[in-house]
Amino acid sequence: MTELTTDSRVFLSTLPPGRRERRLAIAVVLLTAVAFIAAVPFAKVQLPRVWAFIPVYESAVVVCDLLTAALLIGQYRILRSKALLVLATGYLLTAFTATAHLLTFPGVFSDTGWLGAHSQSTAWLYAFWHGSFPLVVIAYAWLKRDHASAGTQRAGACAPQIVAGIAFAICFAIAFAILATRGYAWLPPQLSGPPLAPRYTMAHHIVVAFIFSLSLLALVTLLSRRPHSVLDLWLMIVMCAWLFDIAFAGVLNHGRFDLGFYVGRIYSLCAASFVLVILTLENINLYARVVQALDRERIERQRAQSQTVQLNEANAQLEQRVTSRTAALTAANRDLLNEVLERKRAETALEHSREELRELASIGTSAREQENRRIARELHDELCQTLAASRLELELVSERKALKAELAPVHTLLDEAVVATRRIAADLRPLVLDDLGLVAAADWLAQNFRQRHGIECDLTVEPPNLDLEEPQATAVFRIMQESLTNIAKHAHASHATLSLTRNDDHVLLIVQDNGIGFDLSTPRKLNSFGLSGLRERAYLVAGEVSIESSPGHGTSIKVQIPLPIVRATDTSDAALLHPEPSAGRWR
Q: Averaging pLDDT over each range in 8-12, 67-71, 168-172, 262-266, which range is the top one?
């Protein structure tokens, strides 16, 4: 069963019934049913006419209904539930209609009753009274689901709705009284015979059957409209007593002032009292809760006052401590500020010195590359050519003098000298880098690496005609050279790959191997500057180096070097100053 969803669970109209409430309701229904069954055989037994019973009984009913309506209106002012306002209006309507029934009852205030009553007026007022309340209960059952959303709609005045409900009840009660008195001729007679001992007609049985059906329908509607509240549970008990009242007062009895007449009115009084009793008990419980809440609030206020005094004392002590600590912290902050300024000046000086050292390193590297280029060029163009010419002259002499066999070792030495000279010149500065560009130099470097160390080396260049300006070209070549040297010395690899890619604003170099790898967190060995040299060379051209490696999984070195932005005018000027080499030079 879906549980009631509301934020005011303390009210009977929203509180779901528990096991105790259900057991009590079942006990009350069983008790009234047993009393009904016990009284049925004696329903037509004529008893003395106690005329005071009618005003006492109906006055009690009117008071109970009025008090119940007032309590329901009080809950409506809090919960703003339309169902509660409809139910309160129904209780007001029964109270006003019962008042009219009392005033028109023959023999109470006059022989025929007040308000211009006739012999059939009270019978029809009884029908209006007991037929209108089941309709109100059905309307309440269909509207009671607004409890779930009424809690969020409590803003605004509710007096107009309450006044409208009271006016509705008064108007309908007046209409019932007028119809039962002034409209006497329009209504079929329900009673026949003498006024003091009337008998029921067929019209009466039809009206009672209709009222009984409405009451039964109201009970079924309450049962089917879930979830149930405690108020719904007691309304079901009210409708059970209402059914017993109709059965005794309109079906099982023989006429007025028999046992069924008296017992039916007693059931009607019980039906009017049930909801009033539980609402009164609810108000008592709510009052007790309010008193307990006030007591707890008083205790909490006293405790808060005591804690406030303690807190004020603690605040005074804390303020003294804060004052003394503030003075100490001010002095410490002053000293710390001076120290921070000194450290900043030292860091600035250190950074300036570091920048100067890097500039010197850049200048030294550039000068070293220029010197290497000059020495390599001289070795290649002068010493290597001289050795080659000496070998040719020696071959001519050996052929003329028949000294070929004796001079063969000298030929070998000269060949080795030429090879060594070329290797030394290439190590110092490969002329292919200056003559043919970075792609040819990288290809020569990969081939030389394979020939020297027997390690497979794959080279990928994108785009294939990639060309870089100085100093980026030299930096990329030297980083590739040092990376391959590290692979040959330390990696124990069988395969290496070189990938050189140019994007819009940078060039990316990736060198990978399948060697033994190493732990990046391990401190470097003494006098081992391989990776540091890579970072320094990349730093000189504003590049970044990232290294990924782990034991047994090889090493990957990624170098990203930004490229200078070349304007269109600069490109055209460079084309004029440095024209493309001729086809004969490339050959």
A: 168-172
Domain span including residue 260:
19-43+50-280
* 224's tokens: 């089917």
- Determine contact, residues 33/257, Cβ cutoff 8 Å: no
Q: What is the mean pLDDT of residues 213-225?
A: 88
User: Which residues, in sequence order, are bridge partners of residue 501?
Assistant: 462, 508
Residue 388 has a CB neighbour count (10 Å cut-off) of 15
- Predicted pLDDT of residue 510: 92
Two tokens, residue 457: 């080396």
- Residue matched to tokens 């999984």: 553
Model confidence pLDDT, tens digit, residues 289-322: 778 888 888 888 888 888 888 888 888 888 888 8
- Given 263, 280, 297, the domain boundary residue is 280
For residues 469 and 504, the answer to whether their CB atoms sit within 8 Å is no
Number of domain units in the chain: 2
* Three-state secondary structure call for residue 33: helix
Q: How far apart are CA 150 and CA 154, in angstroms?
A: 7
CB atoms within 10 A of CB 197: 14
Task: Give per-residue pLDDT as tens, 236-253.
Answer: 888 888 888 777 776 666
CA 368 vs. chain centroid, Å, equals 64
The SS3 assignment for 13 reads coil
- The helix/strand/coil state of 427 is helix
Name the strand (E) or helix (H) holding 575.
helix 568-577
Could you tell me if residue 244 is inside a domain? Answer: yes
CATH of residue 475 = 3.30.565.10
Burial class (CB in 10 A: 0-12, 13-18, 19+), 218: buried
Taking the whole predicted model, whether its pTM rises above 0.70 is answered as: no
Residue 406 located in a structural domain: no
User: Does the residue 115 lie in any domain?
Assistant: yes
SS3 119: coil
- DSSP bridge partners of 200: 191
Nearest to 159 by CA among 76, 71, 92, 68: 76
Distance of CA 403 to the CA centre of its chain: 99
Lowest mean pLDDT among 91-105, 181-195, 380-394, 538-552: 380-394
How many residues appear in the chain?
Answer: 587
List C-alpha distances in Å: 427 to 376, 455, 486.
8, 19, 15
Contacts of 47 (CB under 8 A, 6+ apart): 257, 258, 259, 261, 262
Identify whether the C-beta of residue 558 lies closer than 8 Å to the C-beta of residue 510.
Answer: yes
> DSSP states of 130-172 as a string?
HHHHHHHHHHHHHHGGGHHHHTT---S--HHHHHHHHHHHHHH
Residue 367 inside a domain? The answer is no
Neighbouring CB atoms inside 10 A of 468's CB total: 20
End residue of a domain, out of 231, 256, 280: 280
Angle at the Cα of 306 from the Cα atoms of 302 and 312, rounded to 5 degrees: 140
